[in-house]
From TrEMBL:
Recorded superkingdom: Bacteria
Residues covered by the Aldehyde oxidase/xanthine dehydrogenase a/b hammerhead domain: 22-126
This protein's record includes keyword Oxidoreductase: yes
Key words of the record: Molybdenum, Oxidoreductase
Name the UniProt record assigns to this protein: Xanthine dehydrogenase
Length: 697
């Protein structure tokens, strides 16, 4: 029986599931071209300075080692926008863990043994890796539009001083690491001047562009394949050093080269969430109406490149206030380069804002759901633009109803089971609606099948599946008649799986291609299709809504999290008992994969709240946690009854599918809801994540 369920919105199972669980799906490190050599990089052991000398004699003597690349013999690369990719180009060591050599060998074991045998001496310089929010070296960076990333409305300081009810609090979020299941890996081979790379990436299009520029090749001479990717959470959103090193080594040795980074290296070379110090000042009238909102965030960046964890951005979206200052500042240090981690900016920013809102509710003696409802708005506070849709109030009300919020006694420490104090908390969520130009093609074949081609990346989210649904919907055919090809630069160019923008961007192009194809087919009704089929392609560069970027609408998804925790008054252990999220993110295109996205991100938020943190070792200048034994992501035993619900929005200002992104909003606000629940349970207000037993007892 063909699957004739309505394609869009149906809980369609992900198509690559059987291939993944049977091992048939091949990841970047699982391609084994003939003559394959293996590479192992050598990380710097100082936090700042220069390589003084490299002795590779012992490494080259290891049986099977075929070469050692260092800044002294590595080929000169072309220009890259991203300075973290200028590997082995000079003697400079900008942070501990920066790669200073690469050993290539016949076997993985020989490469690893060779790497251990390379002797590097350094001219070491004093380093500074301490995030001091008061440092005079911290500055206000430019936002992507080139404006200072500090926005002011009215007179926030005066208004704060005059406010009847005030909260002035500082929150700290530690460095966090993405740690996808599949560490970063690439297999590269050169054949007659053509480079083919299997890379574990969230966006092969950008990897190809970058390799073209670094190796000074036309893009047509490079193919980058990212067919199956075992997660990334932003750490694979940009090209990473491993793909450059593998390509370089393959060219230098004349053999295919595989470089699979050991997890222990990831902490230093593929990004992390920068720690943030966030001062919040909220001023309100006695009825809870906000009169001033000051959100000041300081994060760190490396000396290699500027990356800003833009925590203050959420305070430009959430609540209206006549007086406001929202600013991001950044301090360059001798640290590894921070980068994107799921909801960069929003996740830590919303932890601070929504924790402060809870503190304000307590100060006012007002229910925290009611406080948020009283500060709801139809226009974006920072821009004055109307929201294309905003169902935050509906999410709060629906969540409160499902959670049983009305039965809650607002007094802290009002509920216990034996030694376990029980509390509940709420927090709101928001994430912007982003979209990038994409291309796609659609073909119809005489057997009644259709093929959609787009260089989308399925990082475990179900992108292939949802794009087939988008196509089936636009073509008006059952979804099992549509095949999708994704994950290769040989397909129509498409943007990365990031910024919760993948489905909107690729889907828009797929929808357009299918609509054109359907029109062509309608014109050929009654005629036989040629064996090669009939095709149509679409390029949404200059999207159909040409004013999308300059639209008069502000577009964001919203949500509400409710958490119930039990805190052991003896041990200080916090267990989340229930977590419930309600989201408003346009039309939900696949109920099954959407639920997975929401609860996956909520789980990551639970980790942010209770278990995850990286510690900057000030003496060594590197993170102490570098494996999953020391960096604690939540496991099944940590994850309680978790529910994700949504309010379907009919928003005509989005894209042909009417969808908003859903990859990141689930993590935004989760940690605040849990922290607020811990306060309700215990009466203790912690302002530093994660909430570990040592801080509670
Ligand atoms: Mo996400 S941090 O945009 O991959």
């Amino acid at each position: 029986m063909p699957d004739t369920t309505s394609a869009l919105g149906a809980p369609t199972e992900r198509r690559e599931g059987p291939a993944k669980v049977t091992g048939a799906a091949r990841y970047a490190a699982e391609h084994l071209p003939g003559g394959l050599a293996h590479a192992w990089p050598v990380p710097a052991t100082i936090a700042r300075g220069e390589v003084a000398s490299v002795d590779d004699t012992a490494a080259l003597a290891v049986p099977g080692v075929v070469g050692v690349l260092t800044h002294l013999n590595a080929p000169r690369l072309g220009e890259a926008d991203d300075a973290t990719l200028a590997v082995l180009q000079d003697a400079r060591v900008p942070h501990r863990g920066w790669y200073v050599a690469l050993v290539v060998a016949d076997t993985l074991e020989a490469a690893r043994e060779g790497a251990a045998a390379v002797t590097v001496t350094y001219a070491e310089e004093p380093h500074d890796v301490t995030l001091d929010a008061a440092s005079p070296a911290a500055y206000v960076p430019e936002d992507p539009d080139g404006n200072p990333d500090e926005h002011t409305r009215g007179n926030p300081d005066e208004a704060f001083a005059a406010a009847p009810v005030r909260v002035d609090v500082t929150y700290e979020v530690p460095p966090l690491h993405n740690h996808p299941m599949e560490p970063h890996a690439a297999t590269a081979r050169w054949e007659e001047g053509r480079l083919t790379v299997h890379d574990s990436s969230q966006g092969a299009t950008a990897v190809r562009q970058t390799l073209a520029s670094l190796f000074k090749l036309p893009e047509e001479q490079i193919t980058v394949v990212s067919e199956h990717v075992g997660g990334g959470f932003g750490s694979k959103g940009t090209p990473r050093p491993h793909v450059v090193l593998a390509s370089m080594a393959a060219r230098e040795t004349g053999r295919p080269v595989k470089l699979a980074l050991p997890r222990r290296h990831l902490a230093a070379v593929v990004g992390h969430r920068s720690p943030t110090v966030q001062r919040l000042r909220l001023g309100a009238e006695a009825d809870g109406t906000l009169t001033t909102l000051i959100h000041e965030v300081t994060s760190h960046t490396s000396r290699v490149k500027e990356f800003v964890e833009t925590g203050a951005a959420v305070s430009r979206v959430m609540y209206p206030s006549p007086h406001a200052r929202t600013g991001n500042r950044v301090l360059p240090l001798d640290v590894p380069s921070p980068s994107w981690m799921r909801a960069p900016g929003e996740a830590p920013g919303m932890y601070a804002l929504e924790s402060a809102m809870d503190e304000l509710a307590v100060a006012l003696g007002l229910d925290p759901v009611e406080l948020r409802l009283r500060n709801d708005t139809r226009t974006e506070p920072d821009t004055g633009k109307p929201f294309s849709s905003r169902h935050l109030a509906e999410c709060l009300r629906e969540g409160a109803r499902r959670f049983g919020w009305a039965e809650r006694d607002p007094r802290p420490r009002s509920r216990a089971e034996g030694p376990v104090l029980i509390g509940s908390g709420v927090a709101a969520a928001t994430y912007p609606v982003l979209v990038s130009p994409s291309r796609a093609s659609a073909h119809a074949y005489p057997d009644g099948g259709y093929v959609i081609r787009v260089n989308a990346t399925d990082i475990g989210t179900g992108a292939r599946t949802v794009l087939a649904q988008v196509a089936a919907d636009a073509l008006g055919v059952p979804v099992d008649r549509v095949r999708t090809e994704v994950g290769s630069t040989d397909l129509p160019a498409a943007p990365l799986a990031g910024g919760s923008s993948g489905t909107a961007s690729w889907g828009w192009a797929v929808h357009e291609a299918c609509t054109r194809l359907a029109r062509r087919l309608a014109g050929q009704l009654g005629q036989q299709l040629p064996p090669e089929g009939v095709g149509a392609s679409a390029d949404t560069e200059g999207t159909p809504d040409t004013n999308y970027a300059e639209s008069e609408y502000a577009r964001h998804a919203f949500g509400a999290h409710f958490a119930e925790v039990g805190v052991d008054a003896v041990s200080g252990e916090v267990r989340v008992r229930r977590l419930l999220g309600v989201f408003a993110a346009g039309h939900i295109l696949n109920a099954r994969t959407a639920r997975s996205q929401f609860i996956g991100a909520m789980t990551m938020g639970l980790g942010m709240a209770l278990t995850e943190h990286s510690t900057m070792d000030k003496a060594f200048g590197d993170f102490a946690e570098s494996d999953l034994a020391s960096y604690h992501v939540p496991v099944n035993a940590d994850v309680p009854a978790m529910e994700a619900h949504w309010i379907d929005e009919d928003d005509p200002h989005l894209n042909p599918m009417g969808s908003k992104g859903i990859g990141e909003i689930g993590i935004v606000g989760t940690a605040a809801a849990i922290g607020n629940a811990v306060h309700h349970a215990t009466g203790v207000r912690l302002r530093e994540l994660p909430i570990t037993p040592d801080k509670l007892v």
